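This section describes the prediction task in plain terms. A model, or a person checking by hand, is given the sequence of a single protein chain and must write out its three-dimensional structure as a string of tokens. No templates, partner chains or ligands are provided. The sample shown here is typical of the held-out split.
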Amino acid sequence: MAAGGLRQPDVRSEAGFAAAVRRALRDFHRPDVLRDSPLLASRLLTAALQRDPTTPPTHVLRAILREHCERLGENARSERYRQVLTLTYLAPLRSQQAAAEALHLSWSTYRRRLAEAIRMLTASLWDAEISTLHPPAPSNPAPQDLAAAVAPSSGRRPWIAAIAALAFLLLLGGGVLLLHTSRVRKSPGTVADQASTVAVLPFIDLDHVPALRYLGDGMTDELITRLGRISALHVVAPTSSFSLRGKPMNARQAGRLLGAASIVEGSVQKIGSLLHIDVMLVDTANGYGRWTDEFTVDASAIGGVEDIIVRGIANQLHVAPPPPDSVWSQTGADVNPQARDFYLVGLEYLDYRDPGAILQAIAYLQKATQADESYAPAWANLAMAYAVMRSYQAGVPPDTYYQTAFATARKSIALDSELPRAYEVLGLLDDQHWHWRRAESNYRRALQLDPSDATAHQWYAIHLWFMGQMQAALLEMQIARRLDPLSPIINVDLGRALLYAGNPRASLAQYRATAAMDPNFPLTYIFMGETDLALGNPRAALTAVHKADRLSGRTPQFALAEIGASEALLGHMGSARQTLDRFKQGARGRYVSGVLLAWLDWSLGNKPGTIDALRRAVREHDFLMMVVFGPLGAGMRADPQFAEIRSLMNLPAASAGRR
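The expected answer:
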């Protein structure tokens, strides 16, 4: 008899075995309950445990369930059954209704498919159970260690992006690690030292509550940060990792999409007053789990758990272990829980990269610093929010947030001198104020602290554009793209880097690939228009810019300048002058970029107006000056008066090959 007086199914009969399978699926993420599964007494499990007696029985049971579920996906016709099992049990969504919606099925169709999927899985497992009565002849290869066949989760949980209120009230006491079990699993044919690129997928909240969702996201972000500081690894950026949340795919598919040889995935669940954390390292080449770990802890021990996980991963990938905890201050035990909650919400808004979302990010990150004034990561990301805001508010002067961003970044460094984000923000601010040597130093410091920081590589590439080192800039942007392959802005900037390095055809191909990945990102089409103009194709540029207008609902200043330049190239000088007049009229009530005015003046043959507008742009620290250093600015740079502009920007005189 089971606890509570329930009769356990007799797994010696097919009906009892089927009932036990259904119960194990329901309890898949409840190791405390799964320990009582009658399947642990089956011949199938007994044989597997004899082959690997050191692995916890519940791990072996979950491995077998995953393996047989994955087998359904080997047949294209039965892949739909693998998906429904995955989203219902192995990597469950918040409800069965949510799983039906994710699979685009009516409720009745979903229920029928789920019943059939359970029947097929049970039949596969029962066949394996029966086969243990008739073992293969000795001449046949020995069956593979089932404990190694830990297939990855095939789905990620979708969550609503808009967050209205905070719910992080995890009132747990003490600080003792109560239970920790860890087993290493070698997957067949794996060569550990080949795994240099790692992605950490968002940890799943098994209880569907905001507190655990934020906690899981915080662990994900922290593991990415800590692993990124291991120089032998390339770690996929959070932007790309978190973009896969809610996408029904297994680790092999995620690995292909992210370019990662290894995937880290895990879950968080509240059991009584404690947290239960599962984590697994998966080889994306074959889908096998290489290493797994589980913890039962109180909330204050999260920092220690993260340290154990990172060291376990480093050990499995045969790389030097990370530095001791002192290198990164403020583990989970050190941070005010309310501050961490505000911080995680702020990061979500910061990732959206539009004016309204960035303002929300600033508000939440400010709350985080108010709740815990010593929380250095919150200060660093608040500095980033201020620094990038200038790129998304075209109607305000470029230096509006400069002093605040600079002071906030310095505050972060004063609290923790090892945070790469603060240095990359300082590098950007130095670039924007033409302090090139200082910017170079700050970028190098950021990349020394975290070689896997995609944003640092991206911004350093832009720095190199100003230095005239276009091929080096392209290399840095390619590294950023490898580290954050699903980031629209990094993919767009790679298109620009290809153009500036002299390969406009590859630039257009990159923009088309970005549009296929995210068809609703307006900057893709705006910068595609820049490449079309560089190729002397103004009609194509107009088509691209009008596409951006439809997506954004307004005409950004850069897009409007492209329209004017395209009209001038087509010989429609009247229309081009109207666009220039529109810019000048707008400048009476709000900020208008001097670079864009210079571009239009140059297109209309007004060279004196061009130089005057560029002087103003340099004086106001207009970072759109980067356009002038690309192909569209070649004519302006060739003008003898441009030497004055270079001098005002603290740039050396250009050689003939760098104009």
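For orientation: The longest strand covers residues 262-271.
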